[in-house]
């Protein structure tokens, strides 16, 4: 089963406050203000930079429960959760350690860099039309490693990947935290992949808001993970939306999940699925596994390895590492990523 995780970090609980503006100041460890620091909420278009005195203000959605990232060249990126908008943030950044990465040149490499780049693009950007229009501007910063014993291919980068998505009109800065592709034999071909996994934090910038681009964004949103979890939280299921299925038989989702609405999030309890319905799976690790269909045509599968999780305002959720997708939804990778705050006013 291919694992698709757009975000690596788990979301922790954030208390709600009436303020909608978060204020703070960025300094170095010796208390010197830092100008031009990037401050953004992970996976969104909500961002700002610090002024000459290191001060900043940024729109804050307490019930969205996502990560605040503080990034500045030459300093270690900071990631903050559990924010309290009633108090100003004072953040002192630490200078990055300039460690030289060892470059190993091997004369018996089985695969070329171009083959590795092709694999990375396929499992990071995807293969959809949106993905094909996406370009990583700094591919030279990528480093690859292939563990021939474990049959695992990994990628890393010391610098954020700069992605220009012309189809959806976004520039994305993606700090790659982890990227792995596992094979069933010594291979670089996608037909031999048994699972893949990537994660990181991202910042979106609008670069094109033309009518055609807006239409493509909405088309991409339809049937996406964001829409799925937003509908899930609202108990909004239907033939022209998402259907929960056992094989090809429609199931009443309200009898398979308990939805508990709180002030700032929704708690979902996954009710145990009859074991007779779960086929070809490791029952020990699975609470429930269902087919899902969007608009009757786009078929996917969702597997829950957790008996409860939370859904927040943007459709982001906790326990994302324990909710696995395959099928149509999993085909949408970074090339089809929309900001978490897409469509939220």
Written description of the protein model:
- By secondary structure, the chain is mainly β.
- It has three domains: 21-93, Immunoglobulin-like (Sandwich), CATH 2.60.40.1120; 113-206; 224-329, no CATH class.
- Helices cover 11% and strands 34% of the residues.
- It has helices spanning 113-124, 129-132, 211-221, 225-234; strands spanning 21-28, 38-41, 47-49, 55-59, 68-71, 78-80, 89-93, 134-136, 143-147, 152-156, 161-165, 170-183, 193-206, 242-246, 249-251, 257-261, 266-270, 288-294, 298-304, 308-311, 323-327.
- The strands form five sheets. Strands 8, 9, 10, 11, 12 and 13 form a six-stranded antiparallel β-sheet that branches. It has a five-stranded antiparallel β-sheet with strand order 15-14-18-19-21, with no helix packed on it. A four-stranded antiparallel β-sheet has the order 3-2-5-6, with no helix packed on it.
- A hairpin with a 4-residue loop joins strand 11 (161-165) and strand 12.
- The longest helix has 12 residues, at 113-124.
- The radius of gyration is 21 Å and the shape is globular.
- 34% of the residues are buried.
- The model is unreliable at 1-19 and 102-107 (pLDDT under 50).
- This is Surface protein with CnaB domain.
- InterPro entries: CarboxyPept-like_regulatory (IPR008969).
């Amino acid at each position: 089963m291919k694992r698709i995780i757009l975000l690596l970090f788990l979301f922790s609980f954030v208390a709600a406050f009436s303020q909608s503006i978060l204020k703070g100041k960025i300094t170095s460890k010796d208390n010197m203000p830092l100008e031009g620091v990037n401050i953004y909420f992970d996976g969104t278009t909500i961002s700002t930079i610090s002024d000459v005195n290191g001060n900043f203000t940024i729109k804050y959605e307490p019930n969205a429960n996502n990560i605040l990232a503080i990034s500045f060249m030459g300093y270690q990126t900071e990631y903050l959760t559990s924010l309290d908008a009633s108090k100003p943030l004072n953040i002192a950044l630490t200078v990055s350690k300039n460690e030289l990465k060892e470059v190993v040149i091997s004369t018996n490499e089985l695969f070329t860099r171009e083959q590795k780049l092709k694999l990375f693009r396929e499992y990071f950007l995807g293969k959809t039309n949106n993905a094909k229009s996406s370009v990583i501007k700094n591919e030279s910063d990528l480093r690859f490693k292939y563990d021939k014993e474990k049959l695992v291919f990994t990628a890393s980068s010391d610098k954020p990947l700069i992605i220009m998505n012309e189809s959806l009109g976004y520039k994305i800065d993606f700090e790659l935290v982890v990227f792995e592709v596992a094979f069933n034999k010594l291979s670089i071909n996608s037909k031999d992949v048994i699972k893949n996994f990537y994660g990181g934090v991202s910042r979106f910038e609008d670069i094109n808001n033309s009518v055609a681009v807006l239409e493509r964004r909405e088309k991409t949103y339809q049937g996406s993970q964001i829409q799925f979890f937003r509908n899930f939280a609202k108990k909004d299921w239907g033939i022209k939306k998402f259907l929960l299925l056992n094989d090809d038989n429609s199931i009443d989702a309200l009898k398979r999940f308990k939805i508990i609405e709180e002030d700032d999030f929704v708690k979902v309890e996954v009710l145990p699925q009859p074991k007779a319905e779960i086929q070809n799976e490791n029952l020990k690790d699975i609470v429930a596994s269902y087919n899902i269909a969007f608009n009757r045509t786009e078929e996917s599968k969702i597997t829950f390895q957790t008996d409860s999780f939370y859904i927040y305002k943007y459709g982001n959720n906790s326990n994302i590492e324990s909710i696995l997708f395959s099928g149509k939804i999993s085909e949408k990778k970074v090339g089809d990523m929309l900001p978490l705050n897409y469509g939220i006013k």
